[in-house]
Amino acid sequence: MAEAMLKVEGLVKRFGGLVATDNLSLDVRDGEVHALIGPNGAGKTTLIAQLSGFLRPDAGRITFTDRDITALPAAARVRLGLARSFQITSVLRDFTALDNVALAEQARQGHSFRFWQPARSDRSLRGPASAALEAVGLAHRADDPAASLSHGEQRQLEVAMALACDPRLLLLDEPMAGMGPEESARMVDLLRGLRGQRTMLLIEHDMDAVFALADRITVLVYGRAIATGTPAEIRANPEVRTAYLGESEGT
Amino acid sequence: MTELLTPFATWRGRIAALVLVLLGLLPLYAPWLDAAGIISQKFALTLMTRVLILAIAAISLNLILGYGGIVSFGHAVYIGLGGYAVGIMAHHGVTNGFLQFPVAIGLSALFALAIGALSLRTRGVYFIMITLAFAQLVYYVGVGLEPYGGDDGLTINRRSDFAGLLPTRGPDKTTAFYVVSFVVLLLVLGLVHRLVNSRFGMALRGAKSNEQRMQALGMPTFRYRLTAFVIAGAICGLAGALLANHTEFISPAMMHWTRSGDLIVMVVLGGMGSLLGPVYGAVAFLLLEEFLPGLLKVVLTWLHDGVAAVLGPGAGALESWLRLAEYWQIALGAILILVVLYARGGIDSLFGRPRHG
Amino acid sequence: MTLLIEQTLNGIQLGLLMFLLAAGLTLVFGIMDLVNLAHGSLYMFGAYFCASFTAWTDSFVLGALLALPAALLLGVVVEIVVVRKLYRRDHLDHVLATFGLILIANDLVRAVWGPDGRRIPLPAWLNQPIYLTPDLPYPTYRFAVIVVGAAVALFLYWLVTRTRTGMWIRAGASNRTMIGALGINVEALFTLVFGLGAVLAALAGLMAGPIVTVSIGMGDNILILAFVIIVIGGIGSIKGAFIAAMIVGMIDTLGRALLPDLLKSFLSVTAANTAAPALSSMAIYLLMAGVLVWRPTGLFGARG
After folding, report:
1. Which of A9, B257, C109, C147 has the lowest CB atom count within 10 Å?
2. Which domain holds residue B175?
């Protein structure tokens, strides 16, 4: 069995009286695509925010590649190899697509205390950035402002930026949110192409996509993990069927 | 070589070049303006030196405000620090400019480091207010500095001495100081141009656009914002040192909060996040301040003549109409509000849209 | 001892004046998210209105009572003509546009009332000391300011915590979309709140009028102090504004009164007299910086 790359133990996050993450434990193994599913309000986005360092948990421990990162700020986690994409498209709107990815590349290369050479003609930034755009199929939009990209293209750009950080673990927060069927299919292809190269923790509502991509699935309900297993096991789990899948088929 | 010419491919670039050339050549055509009876040479150079110096200060504010999205409402404090460094040293007989200027710049940078380290942790309006508070703090230090004139300020008897390279007295000193200020302006423009297009500049602009995203890319944005804050403070301190030399006088009024407001107005009026914007803003703001009363008198005379043509003597005496021009700040305030409401890009955006990024 | 009691009362009096100014500012800020630099101009207009109405009616009380509706009218007009267009803009736009309003206000006052300051004469019954104890005289007017200020503070507390309007105001401060969902006319509520802020500022200005000279730009520096107060207290919090105003009033008054003697022990007399007010002003800004470093959203603030 492969090693656990990310280990979450006894994580708790409360907002006032509401328990958004309830003593949650979870592990993501090296090389797998691990999907996180659950009904709305199950606390998926809250969990991602804690994993990526944008929210501080009230209790519990997060270990990444055998290092306790519970108290580490977001930027430092990325430098360790834990990058995320955002559910609500979060690209730098006034920059071009290529600039967006080049900034990610710049961050990956280390500190940005270089004050003199123009960054836009820096081949060591533009080269890898172009390649990353190419990889997600956006090469033809490289010089267009991110704000002018279609919703689907912005989601692709979002993934390209996360990829440019060269993460060991990629946290994908609903990469297919708001996409049409055609765009979704393209994204599934894109993520399928990354399987084996990257470890991924995928939050997604699109069940077809989840079952097509995931090695293992964890089901989250009211901030708690009620089941973890292979897609076949999850499909067969009666508790999951009543808590979640039954509901989902109805909608 | 062709790369050097690309700025001239657009109207924006051409106008920028024209403005800089007009500013740079002023000492050459000022005598001609004087002879033609338009404006006295000394007055023109004195006024425009002030414009250049405040343009430098506005450029420094634009680095953090326009490129970094950091709304500092206490930027005039560095003008004061730079000015006081020069003034106090001169007061004690230290007039060596090679000593005065580094001290002025270093002191401003140091204060910017302290102020920035404490205040950049706050957000939004709290940041605006905490920068204002620190500026007021230093302002009241100035007011309390009895040995250096307190509230009344201090006259500087000798300008900074650069090993005799620059005439510090006599009829040439006005022109010489104008030229020096212009060269400093060009250097600062060049520096900021390189800065904002470098990796550092991209990180700073990215943090303005979406700070959370930048952190999610692994960028420690606080460090870049703080560094920009310190650089801006240092450049503004340089402007303060120049201003003290120009007016041969320092007082706490240099760093009153309304002066910080003026700097923000210049940046926004000229165009935030555009290289030349603050220069346009400084030119427009200070020339408006200087010539708006006269301009209003012309307009009021037209209006009076028009009304008199219809009503005859019912229009009243021209004098009473012209008295209204005293209240030119009403017009200035109205212009400011109109710019905010209807012309957010500032003067620079009138010359065509900048390319992206 | 008598000096200390007298200065403490002066501190309370200044604190209450500052609270009136800050309360309007913090309401406007908390509800409309608007940075209004021109709030100090409303304070100035309050004082000038009162000076004119007092001269006209020959009575300070009547003058003050007439100045308040005039300030309300002014506030409503300014809100409708300019301020309303700013709600959807960012803070920088607020700062700039209301900075423009200050320029207009100062020159407008100069055009109407002339460049010289004005004094507001007090009626005889306010212009004599009242004996709090047989050997503790205190100016009746300052005492009246304390009474009025405290009454208005209580009224505001009642208005915000106990009434329907107050409920809307609190709802607006915590969640702007919610009050829209409640079916309340947001536009009218905003105008009302801005008008209320104008009246409070004018009340502070006209009550300060007989103590200081009524002059152009009198609101500019006190405005910054009011901002300091609402930032220390936490934006949108009336309670925070009250506590911070009291602290600031005390520091300023006691600093000015007690520091010179303290400083004279190691400074020259003139140096001490210059340094003392500067030091007490600095103390206020240091306090604010300290509070913000410790709690970035103020003592009672929730939002950034």
Report:
1. C147
2. 10-351
- What is A4-250's CATH superfamily? P-loop containing nucleotide triphosphate hydrolases (3.40.50.300)
Residue B172's pLDDT is 80
Neighbour subunits, B (≥3 Cβ pairs < 8 A): A, C
- Asked if the C-beta of B193 comes within 8 angstroms of chain A's C-beta atoms, the answer is no
* Mean per-residue pLDDT, B174-188: 95
- Partner residue facing C100 (CB), from B124, B324, B336: B336
Chains that touch C (3 or more CB pairs under 8 A): B
B357 touches chain A (CB under 8 A): yes
The tokens describing B164, both together, are: 């005799």
Cα–Cα distance for residue pair C127/B266, rounded to 1 Å: 47
Residue B318 lies in a domain: yes
A158-201 pLDDT tens trace:
889 988 888 899 999 888 888 888 888 888 888 888 888 889 99
User: A86 and B210 in contact by Cβ < 8 A?
Assistant: no
Region C78-85: what's the mean pLDDT?
92
Pick from B274, B290, B247: nearest CA to B154: B247
Count of structural domains within chain B: 1
Cβ of C270 within 8 Å of Cβ of B146? The answer is: yes
Domain boundaries, chain C: 2-120+165-294
Using a CB–CB cutoff of 8 Å, tell me whether B334 touches chain C.
yes
pLDDT in tens, C23-77: 999 888 888 888 899 999 999 999 999 999 999 999 999 999 999 999 999 999 9
A110 touching chain B per CB within 8 A: no
Who contacts C12 (Cβ-Cβ below 8 Å, separation ≥6)? C146, C246, C249, C250
Calculate what percentage of chain B has a pLDDT beyond 70: 96
Domain segments of chain A: what residues? 4-250
Cα distances (angstroms) measured from residue B303 to each of B277, B312, B334: 33, 13, 19
